[in-house]
């Protein structure tokens, strides 16, 4: 399966070059006199503000997946087979609840299999899975050694050749689907010619604390933006949990990349370059737990930031070639500038201001970006939604969501600096899922979030 060893070796110089370019772009405007120093920022503001306005507010949105039927069809035609796939390591606290919930997902007999990859668990996960297999004949279990390697991607690659369904849905160990989700989603994917479909991620523990509430708003904003990008002819990205994939297309592009820290983002670009249509739906959602501490959030977002940059570094020649339309290239360029370049420019702009004794120059773009994000949070959280209720939109919650998004202005620069300067090795980092115990567990330090994480050697 896709290993990407050569790409891994080349990432550090690419990250260094990216860092230097952003540093120069943030400092050079301070060499210009007077209002001329604002010309680059205003130019970017007009370009990216227009893109954001169209994506967040002007793109048409509807939920193309039909609402759940009041009663299942009496004699439905045989639908394509589906495999629900979960990579699990040391998940004894939640694996029983997970299998029980997945067994409640409605789909015609014989057309649905549940696969759990026990990825070297050292707790009672294997014993719990053996007990569950006696109760649920559709449950299949694959055991891997603790040192098999590859993290979540390795676990998914190990089970991929054993799957028989036309579709597979990748889920996390804390995932929950509505019982009718597949009955609605698979016909939509088949009729629309989609090769992959991502479900909106809905946070189940939004009211635990301010941090989980802010993450619930962020997930609504993310789904809103993705729908806007798709409606405008842009690119949709997979989000790992709740991604429905056509198995033959995943195999055709090399499976899951074991040399990346975010298998979902990497797969998104490989499917894109192969011409696979990827969709996004608002309802039905996939439900998951948000991390509950700042330390866990910091680790998680570093991984997301690093994986996001890695895919651009790895696939840049294809993204700028003739395989993508002009609309998709523009979408990717604007997204890259807003998500990865803007935070770095904001920091280097402050450095330039301090060195030259001049006023900051990037503030028009930053203000517009935060304003559009706030508008997106407001619009997303006010949409009719299935699953857990979204946070109500009042001034305090809206302010919380906007301020919370500022963490990316620390995460992106720090992660880029680390990628540019430090050698890396891929390490499995366990995420603890507490499930129903989470509501009773005291807030405190959490284990590292993520599946694969890049660390200094």
What does this protein look like?
The chain has 2 domains: 5-61 and 323-434, no CATH class; 82-298, Alpha-Beta Complex (Spore Coat Polysaccharide Biosynthesis Protein SpsA, Chain A). The chain contains 14 helices and 10 strands. The protein has helices spanning 5-27, 39-58, 95-103, 125-135, 151-159, 181-192, 210-231, 247-252, 263-273, 294-319, 326-356, 363-381, 395-405, 408-421, and strands spanning 82-88, 112-119, 139-144, 167-171, 176-177, 196-203, 243-246, 278-288, 424-428, 452-456. The protein is 49% helix and 13% strand. The radius of gyration is 22 Å and the shape is globular. It has an 8-stranded mixed beta sheet with strand order 3-2-1-4-7-6-8-5, sandwiched between helices. A two-stranded antiparallel sheet has the order 9-10. The protein has 457 residues and is of the alpha/beta class.
> In what order do the strands lie side by side in the largest sheet?
3-2-1-4-7-6-8-5
pLDDT < 50 runs, ≥5 residues: 438-457
What's the end-to-end separation, in Å?
24 Å
Please, how many helices? Answer: 14
Strands, helices and their partners?
Elements (H helix, E strand, L loop, with lengths): L4 H23 L11 H20 L23 E7 L6 H9 L8 E8 L5 H11 L3 E6 L6 H9 L7 E5 L4 E2 L3 H12 L3 E8 L6 H22 L11 E4 H6 L10 H11 L4 E11 L5 H26 L6 H31 L6 H19 L13 H11 L2 H14 L2 E5 L23 E5 L1
Parallel strand pairs: 1-2, 1-4, 2-3, 6-8
Antiparallel strand pairs: 4-7, 5-8, 6-7, 9-10
Short synopsis of the structure:
Helices cover 49% and strands 13% of the residues. It is an alpha/beta fold.
